[in-house]
Specification:
Elements lengths: L8 H10 L19 E9 L5 E6 L9 E3 L6 H13 L8 E7 L8 E10 L10 E7 L1 H4 L5 H16 L3 E4 L2 E2 L1
Parallel strand pairs: 1-5, 4-7
Antiparallel strand pairs: 1-3, 2-6, 4-5, 7-8
Keywords: Hydrolase, Magnesium
Pfam family, one: NUDIX
InterPro entries: NUDIX_hydrolase-like_dom_sf, NUDIX_hydrolase_dom
């Protein structure tokens, strides 16, 4: 799979060519004055008991879901697949997009678009990355004191999306 696109690389390359030549600036410098946003992709993975898979990072004091920040020219879905391979040693085929959530700037971190995909059911996942201490399967209520409130809200929407087969747009974990 291409770093640019998690789907068919050949059709993606054709789509890029169909766009025509790279866009040029008619007003020099305008693109450089635009704010830069980050994006991240994560997977809602559950076990057969319905508990959510959380990773225990070594670099922050809270639990998170498998996934991470996108690299340059990488889609959120491709980043999620790459991060799951790095963090858990698994090659997964992600299901549908469940939630797109905008999160505001927080300290050193810029505002971000967070994408949550259905990661399916995986029992017995283990941490395979030095950035992780472990993985744990917890219900959302069990995880609540160990995750950011915005992630709790985002995952609540993601679980709702699984049931309703609807993708939700949220801002800081709240559907809008």
């Amino acid at each position: 799979m291409s770093a640019l696109h998690a789907g068919d690389p050949a059709s993606f390359a054709a789509d890029v060519l169909d766009e025509g030549p790279a866009e040029v600036e008619y007003e020099p410098g305008i693109a450089g004055r635009r704010p830069a946003k980050t994006s991240a992709g994560g997977a809602l993975i559950r076990d057969s008991a319905g508990r959510v898979l959380f990773v225990v990072p070594t670099y922050k004091p809270v639990l998170d879901i498998p996934g991470g920040m996108t690299d340059a020219d990488e889609s959120p879905k491709a980043a999620t697949i790459r991060e799951i391979r790095e963090e858990l040693g698994l090659d997964v085929e992600l299901g549908p997009l469940l939630v797109v959530d905008w999160t505001p700037r927080n300290g050193v971190w810029r505002d971000c678009h967070q994408f949550v995909f259905d990661g399916g059911i995986i029992d017995g996942a283990v941490a395979c990355d030095d950035e992780l201490e472990a993985v744990v399967y917890l219900t959302l209520d069990e995880a609540r004191p160990r995750i950011y409130p915005s992630l709790y809200r985002r995952l609540t929407l993601a679980l709702q999306a699984l049931e309703t087969k609807t993708t939700y747009y949220a801002e800081f974990g709240r559907e809008v």
